[in-house]
Design a protein that fits this description.
Length: 145
């Protein structure tokens, strides 16, 4: 299945916008609040600060994907705060449009694991799954190391 068709299926698994709005006053909870129970959460992380990034790793239709959003404590630094229904819809569309599915967690490029805590959480999952060596080999191949 190509990425475009995968994203179409993900759109069918979105919770209603009103439910997402009720669950989130800032972008910090968006990655964890988008989908219904058909999309399995593997792990998630939110920086404990007034401004930062939020992450979630999912499995859906035998593929993995992740979402990373930036948030802030005010409408000037957080695109969700005080935004309209239309802007919320556009934000969700942009997030879904940016999703790239991977057959394996270890195929997700390492540069996508920016925050050290998030990176360590993913490494722990790979280690538990006995795929950490595959991850390192794949990353070396991607980056020519």
């Amino acid at each position: 299945m190509d990425a475009a068709n995968y994203r179409l299926l993900l759109r069918q698994a979105l919770r209603p916008i009103e439910d997402i709005e009720n669950a989130c006053c800032l972008m910090d909870l968006i990655p964890q609040s988008l989908f219904n129970e058909s999309v399995k959460s593997v792990t998630e992380f939110i920086e404990s600060d007034y401004k930062g990034e939020s992450y979630a790793l999912y499995k859906f239709k035998d593929k993995y994907f992740y979402i990373r959003t930036s948030f802030g404590s005010c409408s000037g630094c957080d695109e969700w705060a005080d935004a309209s229904f239309e802007k919320h819809t556009n934000t969700i569309d942009r997030i879904i449009d940016g999703i790239e599915p991977f057959d394996n967690i270890w195929e997700i490029p390492m540069n996508d694991y920016v925050h050290p805590t998030w990176k360590n959480m993913i490494i722990d999952i790979l280690d538990e799954d006995n795929t950490l060596d595959k991850f390192h080999k794949h990353q070396s191949k991607i980056w020519g190391e």
